[in-house]
Amino acid sequence: MKKTSPPWWDEVHEAAQLLASRLNALVTMAAQTGVYRPPPGTPEPRRRRRPASLRHLAEVIRAHRLAPGMSMDKDDVAAILAGDPRWVTDPVPVLAVARAAHLIAGTPLDDADADRLAVAAAHVSVLLDAARDADERVSDLVPVTRPQAEPVVIDAYFTTRRPVRRKALIVGAVGVLVLAGFAAVAGFRSVTREAPPPVVAPPAAAGSVTPLGHADARDDYLNPRPVRDALDHGFTGLDTDVVLHDGTLLLCHHMDGDVCKDPRDNRITAKPFDTTYLQALKTRVDTHDGRVYPGFHQPVLLFVEITCVTAVTGCALPADPAAAATDPNNPLVVARAIMDALIPYRKMLLHVDGTARRWGPVQVVLTGDHNNDRLPTGTTGDDSVRGLLARQPDTYTFLDGTFAVDRDQHNADLVPVISFPNPVTGANCTAPGGQPIQLEHWDDVFKAQTTGHHVRVWDPRDCTDRTHFWTDALYGGVDYLSSNHLALLGDWLTTNAAGGGGGDCAVAAWIPDQRLNGQYCTLTTGEVPVMSRPDPNSAPAGALADGGRTWFLGQRPGEPHTYRSLHNFWWAYTRADNGEWGWVSLVHFTDGVLDQSAEGLQYSCYDARPGEDADCHPL
User: Fold this and answer.
1) CB-CB neighbours of 4 under 10 Å
2) Whose C-alpha in 71, 378, 529, 573 is 20 to 30 A from the C-alpha of 113?
């Protein structure tokens, strides 16, 4: 008997095929009126080739750089023309095929037609993301036919390609998206409301999931299966809201009486913070030999946002300071409750004691709008969440920082991450006429990373397409993209920014003969130059004669360096064979990816010397 698909997957395939039919019409026109011309600099083929063939379209796309950051071949073009949802959800390759067809035909693709194609791609993306969410909610459903193949592997990636310092790199945007597709989303929501109750699906095998270093699950507590949904997609950051209600930490944005509400003021089921996150992560770590992901040496970040019990826009406190000091709307009270909740789980938490940074598979970071506010602690005193965390004897609870306060401070042992909202954006999640993060936050991101901080940006909440924003963020050097669209961001990162700067760096460990804490990473060959500064034009400090496993104290961005076909602006700090300290370009790390930091190697050197500044310097 023929298997049937649920209506939401039928909508995905119908929208994908409709978009593919538009592209095929353009290709047919190009085949009828166009002429085959070889790429510039290549000889005429011996045999006449058909214009607008798959090979010809791919050649034109590459020659004219119509899909920046992608290396498309004829098989990729075929997948787009076949309506493969993995490809037609991205407006960049869709518009690349359309523009290639118009170039072959000798006619320009006008902006209105480009907008329509981009909106159609965004529409398919919205339907695909929603269909995957719907699958999580339905039970007693026969297996459906939907995309299950391995992600398409391309031989180039969107990466954080930095220019020379203080010179912004402007990425060529392809097309301008407009707000559309909301009617389809509304129609889909009416379908999902009628779906049966959610069913608990088996978790993905941890070893089959590739951890995605850039992926943070925003508002993860709103997913059908908090923690599990994000980890099944390979996310390495989790974000949740908490309130303190009747002495219990609950996963809510705010409370309306005894009713738990989300950020859009929708009613949700209140879940306890402890069992939903801390116990779930502990079970995962216990199951996978002390790791959240097997073999993954970075901690998974758990962002815990302190919100307010009764107020959507602010934490209203009693006028009496004594009453305010114990009020559940006081972020200080909530922060203390979170810190107390962590005590039974300290064995799995990354922490900093008086002598070193102690690795753990989970790192808890408090975030929120009121971390720097002065709040009453009694009738005569006040304090801030920042001050409370800074006084921990051993730091188990960390702080999410801001550019204004933290980017020039050497306090990355307390503030491992700096988060910022995306700049004001247009309908396609990018500012009109420019790349907002690269133009507005280039120096902020560079300075933050130089002083040991990772940088996180929040995803725009309402827009038809986010891929331009994500591309801009990665090119702007952002470390974590925070989104509540798990499947969409996971697939996009897998295709466009998988992997890191290589090196297979291990966790920090005490190196007795050096009398320091360092991390071992792997070099491709021996005779690796060590430079006096993170700059290929600086004076040589020495060399590392042997390849293989070599210890480093940390990494930071610097000047770009090219070695053979490799390019990277990240540098790692170590001591050369002659005893001199200096920097090794990540182009010499194994399995490196263009302009990516080394996976797992700490930023700067703050992990080796807690309390000192983050600039790497000779001990």
Assistant:
1) 12
2) 71
Q: Is 410 helix (H, G, I), strand (E, B) or coil?
A: coil
Q: Please enumerate in sequence order all residues whose Cβ is within 8 A of that of 261, keeping only pairs 6 or more positions apart, or say none.
A: 252, 253, 254, 255, 267, 268, 312
CA–CA separation, 138 vs 144, rounded Å?
A: 12
Work out the widest C-alpha separation in the chain, in whole angstroms.
90
**Spatial contact of 577 and 529, defined as CB atoms under 8 Å apart:** no
CB-based contacts of 211: which residues, under 8 Å, 6+ apart? 234, 236, 293, 296, 298
Token pair, residue 575, equals 């001591």
Question: In which element (H, E) is residue 306 found?
Answer: strand 300-306
Q: List strand residue ranges (DSSP E) for 171-292, in order.
A: 212-217, 235-245, 248-250, 254-256, 259-261, 267-268
Please give the C-alpha separations between residue 326 and each of 25, 138, 242, 323, 377, in angstroms, as whole numbers: 68, 43, 17, 6, 8
Instruction: Give me the residue label for tokens 């079970």.
Output: 283
Give the model's pLDDT for residue 614: 57
Q: Which residues pair with 268 in a beta bridge?
A: 260
State both tokens at 509: 């460990």
- Distance CA(321)–CA(307), nearest Å, equals 20
β-partners of residue 483 are 217
Report how far residue 449's alpha carbon sits from residue 109's, in angstroms, rounded to the nearest whole number.
41
The DSSP code sequence of 100-150 is HHHHHHT----HHHHHHHHHHHHHHHHHHHHHHHHHHH--S--------SP
Q: What are phi and psi of 46, to 5 degrees?
A: -65, -35
Three-class SS of residue 300? strand
Confirm if 304 and 338 have CB atoms less than 8 A apart: yes
Residue type, 180: A
Element (H, E) at 183: helix 182-193
β-sheet with 267-268: strand ranges across = 254-256, 259-261, 267-268
Burial of residue 373, with CB atoms counted within 10 A of its CB: 0-12 exposed, 13-18 middle, 19 or more buried: middle
Give the model's pLDDT for residue 150.
Answer: 34
Contact status, residue 34 vs residue 105, Cβ threshold 8 Å: yes
User: Count of CB atoms within 10 A of residue 301's CB?
Assistant: 23
Structure tokens at 271: 């879940």
d(Cα 57, Cα 379) in Å, to the nearest integer?
74
pLDDT at 618: 65
Cβ neighbourhood burial of 613 (10 Å; 0-12, 13-18, 19+):
middle
If one counts every other C-beta atom within 10 angstroms of the C-beta of residue 2, the result is 3
Is the sign of the CA dihedral 334, 335, 337, 338 positive or negative? positive
Beta carbons of 465 and 125 less than 8 angstroms apart: yes
Cα–Cα–Cα angle for 394, 395, 397, nearest 5°? 140
Per-residue pLDDT at 617:
66
Q: Is 427 helix (H, G, I), strand (E, B) or coil?
A: coil
3-state SS class at 443: helix
Query: Could you tell me the CA-to-CA distances from 278 to 229, 272, 296, 348 in Å, in that order?
Result: 15, 10, 19, 10
Residues of the chain with pLDDT under 70: 1-5, 40-48, 68-71, 136-207, 309-314, 355, 410, 422-436, 461-464, 498-500, 606-615, 617-619
Determine the pLDDT at residue 312. 52
Is the pTM higher than 0.90? The answer reads no
336 by Cβ neighbours in 10 Å (0-12 / 13-18 / 19+) ranks as: middle
Residue closest to 492 by CA, chosen among 513, 470, 475, 514: 470
